[in-house]
Design brief:
By secondary structure, the protein is an alpha+beta fold. The protein has eleven helices and seven strands. β3 and β4 (about 155-165) form a beta hairpin.
């Protein structure tokens, strides 16, 4: 029979541990490996196939993605299940506990957006964009607004419902949308966070709009970024 020490060493060999009772330390034991949090981020709007995750995380290898999925499944953060016919494909999906991690992403996002070194021109996934809307929405700017904003990014269609001080985002048909943005996630982010005028982006062909143009113009002003920190000497 293996000793307790041997068993413990075997566990830390397969999954490194900080051996610290702090909750934050244990959180890093669970999701602190490189790419783990980004895999979780990509599942925040619902299940995805392995190939979808690889496409949305272009810097990750198939081997590392497999390792992270297995580790997150073992930790109880996600599950792997098979869709019923006619799809009959395997997908990965966050558990209810996994979905509870969204405030972590929001806090990290707001904190890191204040860094002068943050480069918003780097690649951006569709899920990252929509999570940023739920993070950066300024409720003071949405007064009296009740609208449905549609987004068509590649094969993905997402509907955002703005009501009062809240925004709900999910995959859905766009027939109820008041306005629809079609383009890449970086192009939409350029309008929302980069201050690029919609007129210029549509003239360049980076974006197209269908529906209420005035609503689109207001929508891109609802998500102010927090101020950058001042550099110390």
């Amino acid at each position: 029979m293996k000793s307790q020490k041997d068993t413990k060493e075997g566990l830390t060999a397969s999954r490194r541990s900080y051996e610290d009772a702090c909750g934050a330390a244990h959180a890093l034991d669970l999701v602190g490996e490189r790419w783990a949090l980004l895999v979780m981020r990509e599942l925040m709007l619902g299940p995805k196939r392995f190939s979808d995750l690889r496409a949305d995380l272009p810097g990750i290898s198939a081997n590392v993605l497999t390792q992270r999925l297995e580790g997150l499944e073992a930790a109880g953060v996600l599950i792997r299940r098979k869709l019923p016919p006619p799809a009959s494909v395997h997908v990965y999906e966050l558990t209810p506990w996994g979905y509870e991690s969204e405030p972590i992403f929001q806090a990290l996002g707001r904190w890191a957006a204040r860094s002068p070194q943050h480069d918003p021109s780097l690649p951006l996934s569709a899920v990252s964009l929509f999570l940023s809307f739920r993070t950066m929405l300024d409720p003071h700017r949405t007064e009296g607004l009740d609208a449905r904003i549609g987004f068509r990014i590649g094969a993905e269609t997402v509907l955002a419902h703005l009501a009062g001080s809240r925004i709900e985002v999910g995959r859905a048909a766009l027939d109820q949308a008041d306005v629809v943005f079609t383009g890449t996630a970086p192009a939409i982010a350029a309008a929302v966070y980069g201050g690029q005028p919609l007129g210029i982006l549509t003239a360049q062909g980076a974006l197209s709009l269908e529906g209420d143009r005035a609503l689109a113009e207001r929508f891109v002003t609802l998500f102010p970024l927090p101020p950058k920190i001042e550099r110390t000497a």
